[in-house]
Write a structure and sequence with these properties.
- By secondary structure, the chain is α+β, with helices and mostly antiparallel strands.
- The protein is built from 5 helices and 9 strands.
- It has a domain at about 5-140 and about 195-205: Aminopeptidase (3-Layer(aba) Sandwich).
- Coenzyme A binds near residues 46, 122, 123, 125 and 152.
- Coenzyme A binds near residues 39, 120, 122 and 124.
């Protein structure tokens, strides 16, 4: 019997409504559709890299390259897992989880988006709560970081609800102007847990690559 050379194929996180799996090429095509359907209002820019401004024919290729790069570089000293979020089998967004030298730092950071049509229904909170449970309860993280522009009330509301505290600011360039980023920090003991427990499948073969 041969073992799967890419153990992340087997990894699944399940929440009450959603399934999160590390990205695969068929799923990325669907993610591209979810992005082209709209992620934010045209006059807003919630992302540090303004990838949503790319012309539609370029956006898909750039998205694939971005995710492939992360996949190619997963290893014990640094990794980004980009989970595709599926609702009833359809990709509706993504939730990333990242760490550098996790074995020593015991810290993760995250970023996410949900296709605009489905925002405001609790999915953003559900996927963040999912990767926080994954990080704290299954990987043994001590802390989780995040960040959002000051003018991103939805992302900041999600962080606040889950117990993150503000941890300073950064001034960043955004489309030729300056913008304030609020840094956010959640210690495992401060996590405001949801009323459900995450189901995780297929983690053991992945642990070595994650530096655990
Ligand atoms: C951030 C994002 C992932 C949240 O997902 P979501 O499914 O909309 O989140 P939820 O429905 O779980 O929660 C959103 C919260 O923001 C609040 N919110 C939304 N817009 C708001 C506004 N203009 N002012 C104040 N609160 C707002 C909602 O009321 C809700 O809080 P509540 O449950 O306490 O009422 C989603 O909005 C998104 O993809 N945005 C575009 C991309 C983005 O900003 N990504 C994060 C980059 S840091």
């Amino acid at each position: 019997m041969t073992t799967d050379p890419w153990p992340f194929h087997q990894l699944v996180l399940r929440t009450p409504r959603l399934e999160l799996r590390p990205d695969d090429d068929a799923g990325l095509r669907e993610l591209n559709e979810a992005a082209l359907a709209g992620v934010h209002a045209p006059d807003e820019m919630p992302f540090y890299v303004p990838w949503t401004q790319a012309p539609p024919d370029v956006l898909g290729r750039q998205t694939m390259q971005f995710y492939w790069r992360h996949r190619a570089e997963v290893g014990p000293t640094g990794w980004t897992l980009n989970f595709l979020v599926r609702l009833d089998g359809t990709v509706i967004g993504t939730q990333g989880l990242k760490a550098t030298n996790f074995a020593v730092t015991r810290e993760v950071s995250s970023g996410s988006w949900i296709t605009r049509r489905l925002q405001g229904q609790g999915f953003g909170t559900e996927i963040r709560a999912a990767v926080l449970q994954f990080a704290f309860d299954h990987l043994g993280a001590d802390a989780a970081r995040s960040g959002a522009f000051a003018d991103n009330p939805a992302s900041r509301a999600v962080s606040r609800k889950l117990g993150y505290r503000e941890d300073g600011t950064n001034t960043l360039e955004r489309q030729g102007s300056w913008a304030t980023e609020i840094r956010l920090l959640l210690r495992s003991e401060d996590f405001v847990r949801p009323g459900w427990k995450l189901e995780v499948e297929g983690l053991n073969p992945c642990l070595e690559l994650l530096g655990i």
